[in-house]
Amino acid sequence: MSISEWIHHTADTLVSHNLQIPLFVLLILFAFAEAAAFVGFILPGETSLLIGGVLAHAGAWNVWVFLVAAIIGAIAGDSVGYEVGKHFGPKIKENTFGRLVGEKRWKFAQAIFDRYHGGAIFFGRAQALLRALVPALAGMNKVPYRTFLKWNAAGGIVFSTTVVLLGYEFANSISTLEKYLRYWAIFFLSLVVVVVLVLKRKLEHLLED
Predict the structure, then answer these.
(1) Rounded to whole angstroms, how far apart are CA atoms 208 and 190?
(2) How many structural domains are present in the chain?
(3) What is the pLDDT of residues 184-207, one digit of tens each?
(4) Whose CA is closest to 107, among 86, 133, 142?
């Protein structure tokens, strides 16, 4: 079974067993929890958005409905993270979770926030650790919520749209790749993953400089 056939088989199975709605909700909750519950520290939220985009192409749900829900979930999750930071402040760093994150990561996120302010809220979505921590740091640093919401909404719209549509277009392209390249499609997928990981590493080093 090819990758595209497996994707469509998965989508058909979800629909036939009425599981597409629970999965839809789960993927959006995962994007929401990335900052609201700091889940992004463990697993990046773009995973759920990519899966949502891929399954949308296979017919599990409408891509635009999923995209709107993803944007709302991302913005709402960051807003909860902001409120957590605002009301609990430095205590977050001292509890069990804060110690798990580690002082080095907190300092890194704080340094980026101090340097770029609103830009950190917007561009921080390109890096999983910053997506998880920057909203809370914005709350800790008493950034006015209207200012935070402006940058948060802009980042949520741009990032969510990009990732969901990348997943959608990937599913669309993989069928063509498999048609002409057969097993080379697997190599292409592996190459895409490597390139994404390298670019994220370069971004992290750039932000640290």
Answers:
(1) 27
(2) 1
(3) 555 655 666 676 667 666 665 655
(4) 133
